[in-house]
């Protein structure tokens, strides 16, 4: 009973955190979180959020799918290169995750799904990745699907809403609301935890991955 109570509290916290993202009305950084929202690590392993098989295209134009992550622990997020507010700090934070895990000697794969796949073609994602010094041997920026496909994946697997609206200018024709979480997926393809992508606790994340590798 206590276990399910904890799961319930984690899910409530997730639903509060997940309704964020980029929109024309939200050009500035999000408001600071309350203590109730700022939990750095949230266990959803008992909810069985399974990542279904997928095969998309990475920043080099090559196929990349779930089979490439088989037996690996990975972190996922949702971003787009024209995002005016939350995506730059999220991607900068993912770069910090990359460096922290490398320094700690803890293997991790990183996957960033674009929620604006029509614009974010491989060359665009390649340029974006280079801007953040991404190690592309372990960090994969994905496109090669329709908007409806990635919105369905975000909703069905990661329980996060993705919606788009018309952008403010020809240079930014689309704005997308999307989750700002980093999701931890185990070797079996199950989402086990999520973190605040705007204020990630790097040491906690490393501990969580180390705990998974010991199972």
TrEMBL record:
Alphabetically ordered keywords of this record: Copper, Disulfide bond, Metal-binding, Signal
Pfam families tied to this protein: SCO1-SenC
Annotated InterPro entries: SCO1/SenC, Thioredoxin-like_sf, Thioredoxin_domain
Domain Thioredoxin: 45-214
Cystine connections: 83-87
SUPFAM superfamilies assigned: Thioredoxin-like
Domain of life: Bacteria
UniProt record similarity statement: Belongs to the SCO1/2 family.
Signal peptide: 1-25
GO function term, MF aspect, one: metal ion binding
Protein name: SCO family protein
